[in-house]
Amino acid sequence: MTEYGDIRTGRHCVFMLHAHLVFVTKYRHRVFTDRHLTRMEQIMRDVCADFEVELVEFNGETNHVHLLVNFPPKVSLSKLVNSLKGVSSRRMRQEFPELVHHYWRAQRLWSGSYFAGSVGGAPISVLRQYIEQQERPI
């Protein structure tokens, strides 16, 4: 793979957009086992495929998961996150009834918040320097 192996093309654009997403369980309950995380990854991959998003990497611990996604510019990260959290919560609670007793008050698997960070490309300082050094037309 070349240095630019993640570059994708759309109808009118060329892009390489990556985001690091972190979802935490409601009340930070430690509920996931390896079996849960394995199924969660497949659910997340299916949701990403529906959005034409590539799930590059997935991992997690007992109370949170990390995702690295490569997404097209037409995808709103907030809508992707809503779908990832909503579909995974519903399916996990259906397929693993033992999870339900952790959420007796609010039938939600995930906390209402999430982390999203942009990743990849050149550091901001390098980009600023590159833009500053562009020659203006006379």
From TrEMBL:
Molecular function in Gene Ontology: DNA binding; transposase activity
Residue stretches making up the Transposase IS200-like domain: 14-134
Pfam family, one: Y1_Tnp
GO BP field: DNA transposition
UniProt-listed Gene3D superfamilies: Transposase IS200-like
Extent of the signal sequence: none
Coiled coil regions in record: none
InterPro entries: Transposase_17, Transposase_17_sf
Name of the protein described by the UniProt record: IS200/IS605 family transposase
Organism per entry: Nocardia uniformis
